[in-house]
Structure formats: structure tokens, C-alpha cells
Design brief:
heterodimer, A: 190 residues, alpha+beta, Glutaredoxin, 4-stranded mixed sheet, 9 helices, 4 strands, B: 592 residues, Rossmann fold, Ubiquitin-like (UB roll), 6-stranded mixed sheet, 19 strands, globular, binds flavin mononucleotide, binds FE2/S2 (inorganic) cluster
């Protein structure tokens, strides 16, 4: 599934500024890509092309580097990011259940997909973030939540969604179904 | 009284912040407006976060697990309005160690000596604790680079990043190498997925790492340095960046340091999420802007490294020991530890352990002392089964061997490695085949693909392990796994491939019966492998609360409110995710 609506508009002036700041020699490749991704959440094609045109970095190096490192994404992300740690400590303490639970709430059913169908959240698996004593844990936006059960993860997500005016597709579906299951009550109220 | 006589110190490392330290600090400031506030890095007692130390005129109190509720009691106590809520007291001047047990008293903190004791971003506080005295001593006493190398040689400190190579030997190579410029690289990539020693050091005492870099740079004659820090550690990058700035302003970094003719400058490079970049030659490729692929050695980086120049790559923790070694002498350091493994080692204790966190102990302490005296044993109702040491390159050591002393030779003899210090503790509920598979998946994904045996070999091993975990393995698979492992070990280009089979080999060696149970009986003894377990509701214990149904992602649980006898799980649909077990209050779901 592609999320065309999430595609970013690249500001050429910004890309130029990064090149001026970080340099245009080959060793600037990683920092430049990092600057682009920090801004847009992924690597928009037009920004990559500008870098190739305006620096000594060629396409083969830039794409080579962009696809080599796990940090870089070539596809747009949802409006909010959730990072789920899959380091050793988190793995043995049930990190998989956090994913199951989040995907359930977000209506993500396809294994290959990491973004909710409505573009609200992207769930990304990350390597150890160095707080192993609080395992398992996840980060929503810039807030870290530790010692999680699957159900806690959903609770924090729902709270975040409420505060950020996001609808959780999986959750909305569930509610709808609940109402469907109780048609009597539904009509009575209506 | 609003706390005018009090000094409040809040631990704000990444883990403290994750546990809510910033909120707690804000609340305390509201309740004790006249107190003096300080923030420090993580003391390493991660299991007690949020940690707050409050000192009054005569005594100091360290409070653990501070949250929105107990904060009121704590504040009342300090205002003299209520007795001390002792259940949250970790340590006090009067009572000594309480909740923390021997957590702190059994440690020997050298690399960590300042972590959790000072405000990491305040250079003055570092100076007050003998900071930058080592480099001043070198420069003002006229110690030659050779003198420094000799001192480090006497200390006999071996690299703490995993390989355990003697630092002084490497420095002597680079000292003698020819090159227009020489580089010193601080390796803060810390890729082991279960380790956070270097994060704490960079975050909690960045000036100490920086001074360590100065000492190493002086010894090898480097004028340029890089600190390669992984992208997952934003706070470490921030604190180290601030340390560089402040050191420059104080004349401790840049041209003619402290008026001498020694000049050295440091740049930070952030990693981009590739485990293999922790390997020294891959790391150099990454700094140069390339894909982080290892290069064939020789030539060794000490002769021909970054941009073709002599380069020394040293781990964060190794460098953190240097200022202490220079100030206290190599001999004092060498006196700690064992005959061949000198000094201390920092470990990150995580997993099923009661007191997890960061600890620094003398080499030679046994695994049992570390886990029980310091770590407080299992955190669950199940006994401990094994520890995983050394991450993806390391191995699992079974509980029966917990009396093994922690030194390079003894740990290597078990088939595991000392590694960088990640120590993940597992109880009876962990499946050793699953752990082996976890690490193999990790190394397979992280293999850079340059050499065939690692690229293809890890895929084949992963396939076999997946089959076994799914209950489709054969006895032949187990044998093949062993052969394949030995082949990959002996024919891979870099350390990643050469060590990738270790988790499999050690689990095969010590937990072969678990592999056999998966194959012959189609059973996962720890009830972890999803393909081999079922979830069923024990109706006599069920209360019919409906919580399991609410959280089931595949809607496979049905029943009526408060009617335990109606509750069942549809085995056809169930994916064995375990969500229901987590939320079930009466513990009525049987996993078998
Ligand atoms: C796959 C792989 C990953 C590594 N990751 C790290 C790391 O994250 N941090 C580190 O300091 N050393 C790491 N090393 C070891 C380095 O290659 C090198 O030995 C070390 O940085 C040297 O510093 P030391 O002698 O102070 O330990 C890794 C090695 C390999 C093969
Ligand atoms: S394993 Fe998750 S924080 Fe380290």
C-alpha cells in the first residue's frame, strides 16, 4: 500500500543550506542523508537528486549508502512515529507483543506494512536504545514508555492519539463492530 | 519550611528520563521551591528509576522508584511532617544500603567513577573531581608519549570493545607509524543489542571520555579525532557535543592545548544504524562516507587507517579508564583483577534480574557473585537458567557454570566471549533455541554481504533454526547446524561472521536437550516458540472478566460476561501471541 498523501514537498533552499553546512565531499554523504531524514522522516527522491547534482557525491554512492544503513527510509512515514525496541532484553521480555498490540489498534494487518491505513502512525522496529533495564519499551514521538505489556502499549497509544487528534483505525473498527453486535441497544438509542 | 536547606539531585540519564525523571523534577521543584536542584547522569541503578537523592544539613537519602504517588510522602518527610517512607529508601547516611542490597558496595568504579555523581554537562564539576588533571600532568610534567604508553602497558588494560587487544601494544604501533596526520577514533557505536555501558559513559561523564581521547591522541601523536556515536543515542551526542565546546573554550581542546605544542581536535560522527559499523575497518569506511563494509587486514588501521593515515580505534570504556590510570599509575590499575585480565569491567545487567542496571566490577568476580550479590537474583518467580554474554558474538552460559570467574580466559573457555559487557539474564521461561534464532536473525540482517560465507551461511542457519522452532526440524538439521557454524566461523572476513555462530554453538553445547525436544517431541520446554504451543482457558479459574477478549488481536476468544464455563479459545484462529496471558488477572490461561 502506498501513502501518496504523505509524500513530502522538498524545499530546495533547505537542501542547499545543508550542503553548505555539512560539505559536499564524499564523506558528507551520511550526515546529509541524516539531515534530510530528520526533516522529512524519510528520504524524498527530489532531495536525493539535488544532493547528487550539487555535490561530489554520485548517485551510486548516495543510493548505496541510503540503502545500506538501517536508519534510512525510502518511503514516507505516518504523521507520528512509534519505535519499538527489539534489542535482546526487550526481545526476551515480550517486545513482539507490543507490535501485535499496536498493529491491532492501528489496523495494520499486512506483515510488510508498517504504517496505519489512515497515515496516522508508523511503527518501526529499532535496535537496542540502551534502556534495557526498562525492557520492553517503545518510543512515541519523543516520549519513552518502559516495562510494557502489550495492553499498556495500546493504552499509551490511545492516550497519544486522543491528545494529537488522531483516529486509530483498528480501534475505530472494533468500536463499530461492537455497535453492530448490539443492534438492539443501537436502535433503542436512535 | 519549603526546603531551603535541601539539595535535591535527580538522575536524568536516558533511562531516568524514560522512567519519567523530568516530570518528577518539575513536581519536586513545585513542592520544594527553595531547595537547590542538581541533575546528574545515571548512577546505574536502572531498576530503581526514578532516583532522587535529597540531602539535608546532616544526612543524605537516596530514594528509588519515585513516582507521582510516593513523592508526596517523601516531600512530607523532608519537611519534617511525616516519618520516612522506608520502602522507597535505597540508601541513607544512617542506614547504609537498603533496597539496593550490595549493589553499590560490591562495585569498584573507575570508568564509572563520576557517572551519576556529577552534572555531565558542567565542565567545572568534572574539574572539581580531578578532571583534566591527567592531561595537565602529562603536559606540565613533560611526560613523553613513550612514558604514557609505558604507563598504559603497566596497567595492562585490554580493549573493552570486545576483542580484548592490549591498548598499549596498539598505541606503540601507531606511534611508530609514518603519516602526515594521525587519527584517533573513539568507538561509541555500541551495537550489541542489550548493552548500554558506552551510552552511560558518554552521557554521564563525557569529559572523562574526552580526556581519555586526549591522552591516547598524545601518546600516538594524533592531531585529529572522531567520536563515532550511534544514532540511537541522542542524549549522548548532545552531551558529548557540549563537552567538546566547553573543553575548547577552556583551552583543553584545539590548538596548543594548555599552552603546550600538543594540538588535537574532535568531530562527532553519528552512526546510521548498522551493527557492522562497530567493527573498526567498517567504522572507518562509514566515516569516509561509504557503505560500512569491513576491509581486509592487514594493513592494520594503526598503519593505514582513516583516509589512508595511521589510525587508532578505541572503545569508549577503554578510553574512560585512561585518566584514572595516568593519575593513579598503571600499577594501581594492574593490581585490580586477575593475573591476565587486569582492572575492572563495566556490565549492563538486563533481563530477568531483580536489580538491573550498570555495574563495574573487578575482573575475576564470578558470574554468580555478579548476578546474586549485586543483581539480586531472578526478578521472576522462576529460577535463572542462563546468561547471555557478549551479544550476537557471544554465547549463553548455563546456571550450572555460574561459578566461572569473569576474566577473558575463563569466559572464552566456555565458548562465550567477554564482549563489550552486555549481560542478559534469562530465567526458565526463556527458550534457548529461540534466543539462538533471535541472534542469528540479527546477524543475518546485519551481515554487510561482502563475504559469501557470512552472507549466505547465516541465511542457511537461520532457515534451519526457524524450522526447528516451528517444529519442522530433523535431527539431521541439528548436525548440519553445527557443521555450518564451524565453517562460517573459520571462513568469514570479519569479526561479525567469525563470531555469528557463537550463540548457536553455545546453546547447542549446553542446551542440546532443548533442541532435541523441539525436533523429536515437537515441544518447546519453555513454552515460547509460537509454532509449538497452544493457549487454553482453565475455566475453573476463570472469572469471565472479558479482558482477554478485548485485547485479542484476532478475535479468537469467546464467552459471556461472568460465565467462566462459556469461555474458550478458538485454536484454529489463535496466533499464540500471548496478549491474553498478559492481561489475565486470575492467571487462568494455560500455555503448553
Ligand atoms: C561486528 C563487530 C561489531 C563491533 N562493534 C563494536 C562496538 O559497537 N563498539 C566497540 O567499541 N567495538 C566494537 N567492535 C570491536 C572493534 O572492531 C574494535 O576491536 C574496538 O573498537 C577496538 O577498541 P578497544 O580495543 O578499545 O576495544 C566490533 C567488532 C565487530 C567484529
Ligand atoms: S534491549 Fe531494548 S533497550 Fe536495550
Amino acid at each position: 500500500m502506498s501513502h501518496e498523501s504523505l509524500e513530502a514537498t522538498v524545499d530546495p533552499a533547505k537542501v542547499d543550506a545543508w550542503i553548505a553546512e555539512l560539505g559536499s565531499e564524499p564523506s558528507a554523504a551520511v550526515p546529509l542523508l541524516q539531515a534530510i531524514q530528520t526533516e522529512y522522516g524519510y528520504l524524498p527522491r527530489p532531495a536525493m537528486e539535488m544532493v547528487i547534482k550539487n555535490t561530489q557525491i554520485n548517485a551510486s554512492q548516495l543510493f548505496g549508502v541510503a540503502t545500506f544503513y538501517a536508519q534510512f527510509r525510502m518511503n514516507p512515514v505516518g504523521r507520528n512515529m512509534i519505535k519499538v525496541c527489539h534489542g535482546t532484553a526487550c526481545h526476551v521480555q515480550g517486545a513482539d507483543r507490543i507490535n501485535t498490540s499496536l498493529n491491532h489498534a492501528l489496523g495494520i494487518t499486512d506483515e510488510e506494512e508498517d504504517t496505519a491505513p489512515n497515515g496516522s502512525y508508523t511503527v518501526e522496529d529499532v535496535a537496542c536504545i540502551g534502556c534495557c533495564s526498562l525492557a520492553p519499551l517503545m518510543i512515541i514521538g519523543d516520549q519513552t514508555f518502559g516495562n510494557l505489556k502489550g495492553s499498556d502499549a495500546q493504552r499509551h497509544l490511545k492516550k497519544h492519539a486522543r491528545e494529537h487528534n488522531e483516529v486509530l483505525p483498528g480501534h475505530a473498527e472494533q468500536e463499530k463492530q461492537k455497535k453492530k453486535n448490539k443492534p438492539g441497544q443501537q436502535t433503542a438509542k436512535a | 519550611m519549603s526546603g531551603a536547606n535541601l539539595t535535591v539531585t535527580v538522575g536524568e540519564g536516558t533511562c531516568g528520563i524514560a522512567a519519567g525523571a523530568k516530570d518528577i523534577a518539575t513536581q519536586l521543584k513545585k513542592r520544594l521551591p527553595d531547595a537547590t536542584f542538581r541533575t546528574v547522569g545515571c548512577v546505574g541503578m536502572c531498576h530503581q528509576e526514578v532516583l532522587v537523592e535529597i540531602e539535608d544539613d546532616s544526612a543524605s537519602y537516596l530514594w528509588g522508584k519515585v513516582d507521582k504517588k510516593n513523592i508526596i510522602k517523601i516531600v512530607k518527610f523532608h519537611k519534617g511532617e511525616a516519618p520516612a517512607p522506608e520502602e522507597f529508601l535505597v540508601r541513607s547516611t544512617e542506614k547504609g544500603d537498603l533496597a539496593g542490597g550490595q549493589y553499590l558496595s560490591r562495585q569498584t568504579r573507575i570508568a564509572l567513577r563520576n557517572v551519576g555523581q556529577l552534572n555531565a554537562t558542567n565542565i567545572e564539576q568534572y574539574k572539581e573531581r580531578d578532571g583534566y588533571k591527567a592531561i595537565s600532568k602529562i603536559l606540565s610534567d613533560g611526560l613523553t608519549p613513550e612514558d604514557v604508553i609505558e604507563e598504559v602497558k603497566v596497567a595492562n588494560i585490554r580493549g573493552r570493545g570486545g576483542a580484548g587487544f592490549p591498548a598499549a601494544t596498539k598505541w606503540a604501533f601507531a606511534r611508530g607509524a609514518e603519516g602526515e596526520v594521525k587519527y584517533l577514533v573513539c568507538n561509541g557505536d555500541e551495537g550489541d543489542p542489550g548493552a548500554f555501558m558506552d551510552r552511560s559513559l558518554l552521557e554521564g561523564d563525557p569529559h572523562n571520555v574526552l580526556e581519555g581521547m586526549l591522552i591516547a591522541a598524545y601518546a600516538i601523536g594524533a592531531s585529529k579525532g572522531y567520536a563515532y556515536i550511534r544514532a540511537e543515542y541522542p542524549l549522548a551526542v548532545e552531551h558529548f557535543g557540549k563537552a567538546i565546546e566547553d573543553a575548547k573554550a577552556a583551552g583543553l581542546l584545539g590548538d596548543n592545548i594548555l599552552g603546550s605544542d600538543f594540538s588535537f581536535d574532535i568531530k562527532i560522527k553519528q552512526g546510521a544504524g548498522a551493527f557492522v559499523c562497530g567493527e573498526e575497518t567498517a567504522l572507518l569506511a562509514s566515516i569516509e562516507g561509504e557503505r560500512g563494509m569491513p576491509r581486509i587486514r592487514p594493513p592494520f588501521p594503526a598503519i593505514k587507517g582513516l583516509f589512508g593515515m595511521p589510525t587508532i580505534i578505541q572503545n569508549v570504556e577503554t578510553l574512560s579508564n585512561m585518566p584514572w590510570i595516568i593519575l593513579n599509575g598503571g600499577e594501581a590499575y594492574a593490581n585490580i583483577g586477575t593475573e591476565t585480565s587486569n582492572g575492572t569491567k563495566v556490565f549492563a545487567l538486563a533481563g530477568a534480574i531483580a536489580r538491573g542496571g550498570l555495574v563495574e566490577v573487578p575482573m575475576g568476580m564470578t558470574i554468580r557473585e555478579l548476578l546474586e550479590d549485586i543483581g539480586g537474583g531472578s526478578s521472576t518467580k522462576y529460577p535463572l537458567k542462563a546468561v547471555q554474554l557478549g551479544g550476537p558474538s557471544g554465547g549463553c552460559i548455563p546456571a550450572s557454570m555460574f561459578d566461572t570467574p569473569i576474566d577473558y580466559e575463563s569466559i572464552n573457555a566456555t565458548g562465550a566471549i567477554m564482549g563489550s559487557g552486555g549481560l542478559v539474564v534469562m530465567d526458565e521461561k526463556s527458550c534457548m533455541v529461540d534466543i539462538a534464532k533471535y541472534f542469528l536473525e540479527f546477524t543475518q540482517l546485519e551481515s554487510c554481504g561482502k563475504c559469501t560465507s557470512c552472507r549466505v551461511g547465516t541465511v542457511r542457519m537461520r532457515e534451519i533454526l526457524t524450522r526447528i522452532c516451528d517444529g519442522e526440524g530433523t535431527m539431521e538439521d541439528i548436525d548440519n547446524l553445527e557443521t555450518l557454524a564451524e565453517q562460517i566461523k573459520s571462513s568469514s572476513l570479519c569479526g561479525l561472521g567469525q563470531t555469528a555462530p557463537n550463540p548457536v554453538l553455545t546453546t547447542l553445547k549446553y542446551f542440546r536437550d532443548e533442541y532435541i525436544a523441539h525436533v523429536k517431541e515437537q515441544k518447546c520446554p519453555a513454552a515460547v516458540c509460537k509454532g509449538l504451543i497452544t493457549h487454553t482457558i482453565i475455566q475453573k479459574d476463570c472469572t469471565g472478566c472479558t479482558l482477554c477478549k478485548k485485547y485479542c488481536p484476532v478475535d479468537c476468544i469467546e464467552g459471556e460476561l461472568k460465565k467462566p464455563e462459556t469461555w474458550v479459545i478458538d485454536q484454529e484462529v489463535c496466533i499464540n501471541c500471548g496478549m491474553c496471558v498478559e492481561v489475565c488477572a486470575p492467571d487462568c490461561i494455560l500455555v503448553a
